[in-house]
Amino acid sequence: xxxxxxxxxxLCDLVGREVPRKTLRDSLPLLGADLKHLDDSSDEVSFExxxxxxxxxxxxxxxxxxRAFLGYEPGLRTYAVGSSNIDLVVEPSVDEVRPFIWSAxxxxxxxxxxxxxxxxxxxxxxxxxxxxxxxxxxxxxxxxRTVRPPFTYKAVLPDEVSFxxxxxxxxxxxAEILKDHEKGMAYAFVLEGKKRYPMIVDxxxxxxxxxxxxxxxxxxxxxxxxxxxxxxxxxDLNAVRSAVNILSTALAExxxxxxxxxxxxDGKEELAPDLSPxxxxxxxxxVNRWNGTELSDTEIVDxxxxxxxxxxxxxxxxxxxVPGYRSDxxxxxxxxxxxxxxxxxxxxxxSLPERSTFGEEDELVAFSNSLRTVLAGLGYFEIxxxxxxxxxxxxxxxxxxxxxxxxxxxxxxxxxxxxxRTSLLPSTLSILRRNKxxxxxxxxxxxxxxxxxxxxxxxxxGASVHAKASFTEAKSLVQSIMSALGLPNEVSQGxxxxxxxxxxANLLASGTEIGVFGEISPATIESFELKYPVVAxxxxxxxxxxxxxxxRKG
Length: 554
Description:
Largest sheet: 10 strands, mixed
Structural class: alpha+beta
Radius of gyration: 30 Å
Helix content: 25-40%
Strand content: 25-35%
CATH superfamily of the largest domain: Phenylalanyl-trna Synthetase, Chain B, domain 3
Distance between the termini: 54 Å
Number of strands: 25
CATH class of the largest domain: Alpha Beta
Oligomer: single chain
CATH architecture of the largest domain: 3-Layer(bba) Sandwich
């Protein structure tokens, strides 16, 4: 969780009155923070805030919440948004690179050390958390007086333009920045594999930003800056808009005046930022059921207002206005949680459960554990791999077509973890790949979940790699497993693209296919960068369990 460091005196200035340190110790944890440092003799304060509230990643956001929570200014905090007549043109060339951009202009800022410190810290906190280390969201702030609108967001070739980047001493192309600049080398992975790079330029072709890597030195914020231009690019439009709302309203808390930027793309236009509150309704009974309370409608309204949410009574429900910087509220249950926080957790009291319950191990889990004991007894080491995988390992390396029903991650943090696995065997072979420098033989197994048809299924897979690995070894292994379970079994000719033709078999029990085993094909071995013969198996644990259970009843 991000740690927010700020000045106690600066916080009090933003709140508009002195807030006793004891009040901070008592109140901020109720808003979702852990105290790190708050000394009566020091002006420095540190709190670690929960990741669901990125609007608390700056002292400005903390002060805004405290004003509502402590009853100084309850209800919806609104910001006047004027017009700037600035255009930002988004070219179609960015669609395949970094498709979304949002913006704002904040005029009349008084650039002080606390503001600079807070904005730089907020920017980086958003990059790491909401931005997924700049992959999902990246923010730039610029001295508006140094450039001339309209601005253009486009994709350029690696050596098409050059500019002097922040912390740079010479003009560099995007390719040179990624290779030689400190920030370029640190974040080059975000643009890996791209043939063009995103760029924001002004009317004269001056570079404002090379997102998500670095800004140009021409627009660096100085003590003389008054008007700040904010750009935010990324791969998720909602996250991009939320980040701009958080940063622009933080500047507005310092006295800045927010103005819109006209976003032009594909013949359409939008005004950014959009700070219009989200309108929601919630049933008072729903809130009380979730929280175990008996609050009146008026009390629920008061609790929401303490959380900085606009609230008013309607016939049979409560109308809520969620501020534009609160991207964490998306469902009525979120409003119920806000009511609980606004009511105050200490007021809920304590009580013992009305009924005593006793837990016991799930039968399938117990059966899976017995399989682990069997495999360990046969000389195999257990591994645990991630449920997320990639198409290259799951399908390409196994010579299989990609399943249409495979579940993909919308915003993956890594190219290696982009879908939910449909087979355990590729994960098992990938472990052998990572350990190919170790001595042989290596024998590993895993009991874990795969996702087939949007449902979890428990599978067991294992693999053995050494110079003399053969089909006979694999057959002996699976038959030993079945014998340990007391289940009859038979073997039939199998066919699987990942296995060697003629050295692959299906395992059956009572006529039901349980899984596959055999020698891995040379193509698959090469795909996983292995150099020795490999035998492997994958079995359906749930089918095994059903047969084992039926056998016990019989």
